[in-house]
Write a structure and sequence with these properties.
The structure is a homodimer. By secondary structure, the first copy, chain A, is of the alpha+beta class. Chain A folds into two domains: about 1-85, Glutaredoxin (3-Layer(aba) Sandwich); about 95-215, Up-down Bundle (Glutathione S-transferase Yfyf (Class Pi), Chain A, domain 2). Chain A has helices spanning about 15-25, 40-50, 75-85, 95-115, 130-160, 175-190, 190-200, 200-210, 215-220, and strands at about 1-5, 30, 65, 70-75. A four-stranded mixed β-sheet of chain A has the order 2-1-3-4, with helices on both faces. In chain A, helix 1 links the parallel strand 1 and strand 2 (about 30). In chain A, helix 6 packs across helix 8 (about 200-210). The longest helix of chain A has 29 residues, at about 130-160. At the A-B interface, strand 4, helix 3, helix 4 and helix 5 of A face strand 4, helix 3, helix 4 and helix 5 of B.
Amino acid sequence: MIYELYYWPGVQGRGEFIRLALEEGGAEYRDVALVPDSKGGGVAAILRMLAGRGVSRPPFAVPVLRAGRELIAQTANILLYLGGPLRLAPGDAAGRLWTHQLLLTILDLYQEIFSTHHPLGDGYAYEEQRAAARRRTRDFLRVRLPKFMSYFERVIEVNPGRGPWMVGARLSYADLSMAQVIAGLRYAFPRATARALRRRPRLAALHAAVFRRPRIARYLASGRRVPFNNEDLFRHYPALDR
Amino acid sequence: MIYELYYWPGVQGRGEFIRLALEEGGAEYRDVALVPDSKGGGVAAILRMLAGRGVSRPPFAVPVLRAGRELIAQTANILLYLGGPLRLAPGDAAGRLWTHQLLLTILDLYQEIFSTHHPLGDGYAYEEQRAAARRRTRDFLRVRLPKFMSYFERVIEVNPGRGPWMVGARLSYADLSMAQVIAGLRYAFPRATARALRRRPRLAALHAAVFRRPRIARYLASGRRVPFNNEDLFRHYPALDR
């Protein structure tokens, strides 16, 4: 099976959670945004897919994964689907639900990170909502980030499996996504994140262990991973990183 | 199986998506918040569960469903779990993923509705963020709500199954949750929602059909459904409903 991933070019965004799973799982996939227009790819192909002519189960937004004849959307849903074939989730039903539950909680944190710089939504540029962003970020760094980080630290701590992971003794897609959010937080809020990780050694170790995985390290070295940048969800505005 | 639902009393909140599924599915369940403290229920029981002593898979927040020895959290994850036994999702894997994908998109809309009155998060009271709420709501009602509503209207339209539903010919938990969000929007933004529904007859019909279901009608008539109120996620502030 050759998967096709539809996601906007130039940013990691939600697409990166899927890419990390595909890379670690050793899957063959086409990143449609990177395929030339002349070969049926690019932004035009994404817009055609989203227009969804003749599709009876249309997606609302990217990321979308094409797997054979199926179009699957919603980041958490795509990872739920990929967890089995890529061996990135436990085989039992309870373990699969637990991994999915963690992923949904990681995406809740991700959404709150977006709100730090766009509390009024993406209908307004950051420059139009700086004051609101400062207030939202203050609460995020003081209350919400520590609450999420302490929760995930505890998940690793009480996991009966050995090693640095959240679910049992093997790496899951929840670990990959957790590491990605930590990497993004280090970019967006280097000072606050360094402080938060100093007190949460298990999360720091998980982050390091994911980015040391041979396939993930190879992906980062390949130049295919889009660098963090301020058009993306993780943004570094020094005014917000107290 | 007698399920136990953990959710805060006094508001519908995310718990209501679970309640509607349990009611329509004819499940036996205990709403822990409504059980007296002296019988091991109430807010004290919720806090004890969230403290999670001795639990190896702790939840981050309510709603949480106890099903036998399992504790399942995250609204979408609980409905994914209940879809099978309550016959509120298709039996095939692709249909289950599609139903889950719709539910995740409905919850994205739900989260944006929360942000209309709390764009700076729940660290600040509404009264401390009125101006930001007005700006966020303006964009929500002009851009985001129509986009979501048109999408869900189209989902019903292109569904090959007959009838008012989103997934095939049978009611699913996605329909129940969609109807719940429409009911909440009618409470929070009566003018804007009436206008939006006039142009989306399929969504209006789905909403009516869900609340006409005998078990749902009985639940509403029982007095057990918490009325909409301004401590909840759906809030009616006339200043926000242009």
